């Protein structure tokens, strides 16, 4: 009795389904109660159906192939391997990834109490997030330390070598020597310049030329080695890496970009590139290196290796760790990750980034690469207050920084575009060597460009004290008895200062020009803008005259710092994170206000000339599919104007839920190149059921062919819960419900595009279906949106495509 | 010829519409081309229709009332006043607000070139965002300065009065005196304690009792005045305000919560409450005050006053300014706003918050309320490094902080619940006076509790130096010749230190107990937890023994700082922002690592006992509709299980697009209490057209009745672009398309609730419609979600309602 009732209910359900599919006249129920009734019926259907799918299915299938179809169903309920993964250069579906992760989490949680082993596994899973960021932090800190030490040593190798211990750099070499006096701590017998070694003489024009030659020779060798390594082993290791990491974090797949080869080659070539004296820095590359570490460690944990969204959380934390070690600024690193790099940044990631940055900074501090217990060479502290009238020059520095940023971005992008479009770009090795040669030849004569950029920044940032031996400090040299030209305090500037300022101005111009050509070369390179305008401040020495002579009323280092921040702000358009980085870099808590003023001004001025920062500009140059969260969409277009198919296009390729055969399905897939297909109730009603991905369909058909008997070309494919009623002699149908996304995102055709863009950004969608009064009209993908935005901005819509 | 063609096209359109409404058999076109054709038809229909709605309408209307119906349409195209505003205690629709703002922006931009006046207006509009945050920052800074000075003066009033200048506080009074020696700078003839004034004697038990009495008297008076002011003038001015501000920022409307009365009363009573010596701080209230300023200034700018979403951007910036002045930490304020308070935080708001915080800090610095050129009284700088082994006590401090936080939250919530549910809560004035009396009576004998909390923190944080007169520093008093018991450095602790430690422990216990009862009182009160555990550190004096005697190996102030951070972390569960605040507060750049370690530990330990911070706990206690972005939704329910109507409910109240009369519409509205109604094509097809809000419908009907002739109870209401064909004698129909939201958010019934919750959080929705295969099934509102989450957590679902 009960079984018969069950049968009739199942039968009803099945016939209900077949009626639904056969025609659109399925309104069996009418009047006010329709929603209620419909709801109840459907509810029964699904809840019962889910409880015992096999038996229901068998009963309603007309009694034909009961046992095997049960078996078939069981087979299909298992996840098909490969479903839910992504191809290279495709966009991930954040929502689906997050659902997958929650599902996995629930599975582990429900098993937890079964055995001690499962409990251990659940603990491991719960802690794996912290473990992976800890490992990433440790590795980033260690690598940063190694890079710092190696680059320092190789940089000094250009000038000479320590005979007593080859592995010592200049400073370490002389530090151990007891013949060194403090005043001339750079000179000691153990350290031999190349001229001394080869010609046997330390002075005279011959030795100068010898040193000059060896300097250039080493610089060229390093640059050549770097570019060859990159070209042969890991083409992804070139450049700053930040534009690509931004794109990857926004949900794009670039396989191998964060792999072990990239990591190895990037680490080695970064050392070479920095040592070669090219006008570049290690900040961007260190972020890339940290992200590689994060990616590699995430493979140890299935929670992260199998989920693209979760992996990106690790990468966000890794980029915070990268900035943390690059600038010695853990909090700034977290803010950088939040403001500049990350796309999806939940609060949990904030804490983990914080932790990763902390661990990395801690490791670097333990390695102590600079021997000053600080994370960076150019850590400084000021203690003099600043005065209100100084805000004027600070704001002027901001204006200058903004102008410089806008100019730099334009010039650099123009150069990179030229490189891409002309024959010139075909010879990257030659280009690198040319730039390295010019850099080395021009840099050597000027002491400010000859030294390492970090050392230069240190010298500029540091206040002049009695122990300072820099030429810039000679105007205060009356306190320093060892100076040649010592003068009285009423004459604040000496010829030494003037020549230093001249050299600095030349160095500034040189650095500006070279950086434009260097950023974008096929070697690891970061923006080392901080160095740039650092110099600018020296004109403000003039202010000195306003104060009482000899009093410490203006801190030149502060102007250097503010100038550096303004320039970096103009180039990258960062605000809060930049202020925090500079402020952590220099310990100048007092100076937040001037920093803020300069950085804000520089951003405003820069934005007036073009809203993109250098990273966004490079993303657009390379055509990555990146939907910027900062840019506002201000047009009035509606979803119907952006969706495909357009007026002149062929109709939208759709699948019907239960009347296609395998052959028809394969034809649709092979004739189109879309990544996914909406599934509808029937061609007549156009009512949307779900969305199926091309990759998943292909995998599922392959899999069914291999594993299930009786699946033929004329097998019926169905996406419904229950198989459609088929003639007795038809082959076994193929159920594809498991690959059907039954909760596709839909918007109506009247939805303004601004809302659609918002949804895409905030939820991280790949595609969205467009309906009108409940019927399917079309589809909008992320690329449609990017193309539409390019069109609206009067750019070539095809430039959006990744190339 | 052309006109006839137009007519026939219009006719086709109109008949198309009527077919759509009459039955669901509208599938006139079939086969593969259906989408394409449908799309084209609709497109024509709409684009032409929009271009000349009047004439099309007239022609298709059967030639009846051509001129008046054109007039009618014109009237309706104007925005109806009041549509798009919100009732009190309702949730805003972020998406709609943002669309409104973009629309306004476009209108201004398109007019810009018309005249110089319009151009000025557009400039004003573009800068109004910066203007309003500047004004907010200025006002917050100024108010914070006034509050600081006033509270300081009134606090000293409890102990005595400056006879030479009544308006001087104790320190200022003696500062000007030339009879003050540095060692006894607290004592000067100008400053008279109450005993001196009244009894004429400064020493002896009588004067002690007199001072005790006056202290208690003033404390009680201040508390009484504060509670009365709050009760009579601005009931919203009580409490910390942060839970409510979080709720408001998440999109809830509480009228008057940020109004001018609240601002005035909160400012006055905050001074009174702090001066009364209650165990509370001014941080939360300062955030509330700053938000009031932001809200009031936003009324000057139509861009912000007329848009609830934009107004919330100002409030986010204002809360950053509030924290900035409360702790003297501009960056920390921005992070606090980001991490703890804000809901929707675009990068633009980040910059503006940054700016507001900067301006506020700047103003406060200019006012210089503490005479130390710092933003807070307890600004300190340490310069001694810390050692790796010290991480152990720091982590222990974190554990302690977490435990304390969990305990505090439970105890405070239990007490507040008791207050709400029992008769006791009926007498707030009595309660405040009782607490104030107990506080004052217990506090006076102990010097650490007698003084202002900020002063106490300053004393605890500060390193002992030769100039320090605190009892705690007596063990180093050999450098300070004026001490009574001076001892040698080999004996690090003196009786003075021991008694100080005893007093501190008592003060700690006392503060712990009192804060539990104080937080939640009906006076302005903030959490002043930093003060709390600050004391704890003194047990770590024991560590001193490990180091060489006399060496400066452990900084007690550092322990105080870390302990304070850990406790505040345990109570509020903030991480990054808290570290940044403490670090800005104290200038201890070196100490980020210990701070991070302690704060992370305290958060973990606290979370083990309950995931909510104190603010979330209070939000839940008060039943505000707040959808927390931090809490993860981990259940497997589907949208169909959460949506209404449930199985046992009456069917969903829906409107059909063109066959209701005004009377029927009014009946539906009056019989239900829903805030909005889905509009469908027809009862039979259940295909969704849009969503109309109750408030908008009511306003539109009222408006039509008043302004349009011929609208009667049996007038047909239609939401379509064109009026339905009606019998010749029927009254004029009422078009409500302008109030119809044609892009309602929909999800399918199979959508997992975790995705739905995500959509609600990220897009800030009010409601979402649920469909199945293109038909409307039900609706999910924010309250449904909150109710469902409460149910899942085994809480009473009805506690979610605002009360």
The outline of chain A comes out as elongated
Main pleated-sheet profile of chain A: 3 strands, mixed
CATH superfamily of the domain at 388-622 in chain A: Clc chloride channel
Which architecture of the domain at 388-622 in chain A does the CATH hierarchy give at level 2? Orthogonal Bundle
Strand tally of chain A is: 11
Gyration radius of chain A, rounded: 33 Å
What name does CATH use for the topology of the domain at 388-622 in chain A?
Clc chloride channel
Could you walk me through the main structural features you see in this protein, from its secondary elements to its overall organization?
- The structure is a homodimer of 803-residue chains.
- Chain A has a three-stranded mixed beta sheet with strand order 3-5-6.
- The longest helix of chain A is centred in the first third of the chain and has 42 residues, at 116-157.
- With 803 residues, the first copy, chain A, is mostly helical.
- Among the domains of chain A are: 48-91 and 627-803, Roll (CBS-domain), CATH 3.10.580; 388-622, Clc chloride channel (Orthogonal Bundle).
- Chain A has 31 helices and eleven strands.
- Chain A is 56% helix and 5% strand.
- In chain A, helix 11 runs antiparallel to helix 12 (283-298) and helix 23 (556-572) runs parallel beside helix 25 (592-609).
- At the A-B interface, helix 2, helix 5, helix 15, helix 16 and helix 24 of A face helix 2, helix 5, helix 15, helix 16 and helix 24 of B.
